[in-house]
Model the fold of this input.
Amino acid sequence: MRRVIEIFSHDITHVTALNAKTLDGGASPHSSAPADIRAVPTSPAAPPHAMASALHASAVCLASAPNALRRRGATRSTSRSVARRARVCRAEAIADPATGVDAETVWKDESECILGTYGRGPTPVFTHGKGCVIWDTEGREYLDFTAGIAVNCLGHSDPDWVAAVTEQAGKLCHVSNLYHTEPGATLARKLTNDCFADRVFYCNSGAEANEGAIKFARKLQKTKAEANGETKWATGTVSFSNCFHGRTLGALNLTWKEAYRTPFEPLSPGHTFATYGDLGSAKAAIVKGKTAAVFVEPVQGEGGVFPADEAFLKGLRELCDETGAVLVFDEVQCGLGRTGYLWGHQSVNVEPDIMTVAKPLAGGLPIGAVLVTETVANAMSPGDHGSTFAGGPLVCHAANAVYDKVNTPVFMANVVARGEQLRSGLREALKSDARVVEVRGSGLLVGVQLNVQAGPLVGICRDLGLLVITAGAGDVLRLLPPLVVSESEVDKAVAIIAEAMGKME
Done:
């Protein structure tokens, strides 16, 4: 198998080994046999010490490479010589020799120093990506159908996004909200021009956005009550079965999953859960004078990929109008093009009073936003809410670049087409598998409902070079590819999932 070492005429030379494959029955990492690249494990399940030894060997070899390799205009003979040495030294174990990332060291540092709130285990350590593809420390390639859980809507290293971030980082990153900067103002104008909202509050995440929405709704209820000479006002909240609105303490009130809530009880009083999609249940839960806000996802993501129907969302709008409750659409996962519409609720022509957005807005940088009507905005005063880092020029300039690319008819058309292709392809490929209950979703937010746990399937897919995640009660395979995914990449993902289902016991 040929190995290629490319010489780049940039400030940093990247050495990338292409198409590395593991041979069955490769030599043990402790064997005295020659260090041939073919013996290097490439599976994420490979023992950490095996990967570490390969990585170390690569780093040593690359460090000793002639300086000519790092200079522009390196000779072809030099390149060939270095390539031969790199093959012997297992160069394919490192994706980026400039960093020399050692997977075992990363795992060790994380296990010893990072709070254990994520059960990652020895999953791959990723070093770089391009488009819908991402590479780990072994140089192994994965098709990314998670997009950082709906964050990387333009994929990895989008050139326009990179240019925007680089440009703004070289000009101005942060000055605090005591002062005005252009990127945040420009982004706010774009956001309010293209939806129901009149005003924007910036924050740093989806959970923060929902925390802000709770405060804004309660302040509006207080303001209305006081204007009428009343001394009591609605403070309660309603959300729905299988919903997810975040894990900060206020947002946790709204989140359905009991395992998230019970360790931190007692939570704030006054919250009620209703059944998603059931207007009768919602009507019983939303009470005039008690319910300040109703939170709902137009398409549930973590809860299992459930799109709400038009009648349900219109019914909620009517109930909120009747009771005076504030209707909040949580579009943290389903917003900004994910459904094939700019905002998920636009497919059913229902408008909220507040909308929370976050994940894809800055293409990978942390940002959140609470979009509100003028009525809600008028209830808020200076000092009522704030955030040190929110709305900084760097993240907002990146968000402007993302927004301008996503908010075009051509871009949206690709999302719709690829979403239909993905759902129909999965239905056809998995139609004879009795473990598959349903394929559902909206745009490029797709779920495969199983009658077994999906966790093992996720692991098999990863071994086959596809990144996917679970949802619901762990029985839904959730697919969230970058919105720039191609037709061939969708076909490849479908084929891998079908193969993985065949391997799952």
Notes: Residues 1-95 have pLDDT under 50 and may be disordered. The longest helix spans residues 206-227.
